[in-house]
Write a structure and sequence with these properties.
mainly alpha
Length: 214
C-alpha cells in the first residue's frame, strides 16, 4: 500500500474514532442530549455539518495541512454530536455488530477499488447523480409521503451508492499516489471522502438491521 493511501486510511480512522467517541460520550450525558435534541441546536449542528462539507470540499486543496486537519477533526466532532442519537436509539451490541459489517463491506469494496483495472471515473459521475436524486427523493418522502417502505428502499439505494463511491474514492487516492502526489492535504481530502462513505453505509445499514432499544 502506498504511503499516501496509508495516511489517508489513518486519518479516516481518526475521524471515525472522534465521531463515535463523541457520540457515545454525549449519549451518556442527559443534559447534553436535551440541549441538542430538545432545542434548535440539532438543526444548527445539521446546517453547520452541511456548511463544513461544502466549505471543506471547495477549499481543501488551498488549505495548509494544519488547517485541513483542523477542519476534518472539527467536522468529525460536530457529526459526533448528532451521531449521539444512534447510541440512544440502538443497543450498543447492535452498533458494534453493524460497525463490523460496515467495516467488512468497506474493506471489500475498497480493495476492489484498489486492485481493479477498470477505470471508475465514469461511474463516479453517475453515482454522484444518483446520490443527488436519492437525496431529493428522501426529502420528498420526509415532507410529503412519510412512507416506511419507501424509506427502506431509499436506505438500500444509499448503501449501494456509497459502496460504489468507496471503490471510486480508493481508486482516486491510489491514482494520486501513483502520479507522485504525497502530501498531508491530499491524505486529509481522501480521508474525508472515505469517512463520508463509511459513515453513510453505517447509518443506512443500522436503520435496516439495527436492534432498537425498547
Amino acid at each position: 500500500m502506498s504511503k499516501l493511501l496509508s495516511k489517508t486510511f489513518l486519518w479516516m480512522c481518526v475521524g471515525l474514532i472522534v465521531t463515535f467517541l463523541t457520540g457515545y460520550v454525549v449519549s451518556t450525558n442527559e443534559n447534553m442530549l436535551l440541549a441538542i435534541f430538545q432545542n434548535n441546536l440539532y438543526w444548527i449542528l445539521f446546517i453547520l455539518e452541511f456548511v463544513l462539507v461544502i466549505f471543506f470540499s471547495a477549499r481543501v486543496n488551498k488549505m495548509s495541512p494544519t488547517t485541513a486537519k483542523i477542519c476534518f477533526i472539527l467536522y468529525s466532532f460536530v457529526n459526533g454530536l448528532t451521531f449521539s442519537s444512534i447510541f440512544v436509539l440502538f443497543e450498543i451490541s447492535s452498533i458494534i455488530y453493524v460497525f463490523l459489517i460496515t467495516a467488512l463491506i468497506f474493506g471489500i469494496f475498497g480493495a476492489i477499488g484498489y486492485f481493479t483495472k477498470i477505470d471508475l471515473h465514469g461511474f463516479g459521475l453517475y453515482l454522484l447523480m444518483a446520490l443527488v436524486g436519492t437525496l431529493i427523493a428522501t426529502a420528498i418522502n420526509i415532507i410529503f409521503l412519510n412512507s416506511t417502505s419507501f424509506d427502506l428502499i431509499l436506505s438500500i439505494i444509499f448503501i449501494l451508492i456509497f459502496i460504489g463511491l468507496t471503490a471510486y474514492d480508493v481508486q482516486h487516492v491510489k491514482e494520486l499516489s501513483e502520479s507522485g502526489v504525497d502530501n498531508d492535504v491530499a491524505a486529509i481530502n481522501g480521508a474525508f471522502e472515505l469517512y463520508l462513505d463509511f459513515i453513510n453505509i453505517f447509518l443506512h445499514l443500522i436503520q435496516i438491521i439495527g436492534d432498537a432499544k425498547d
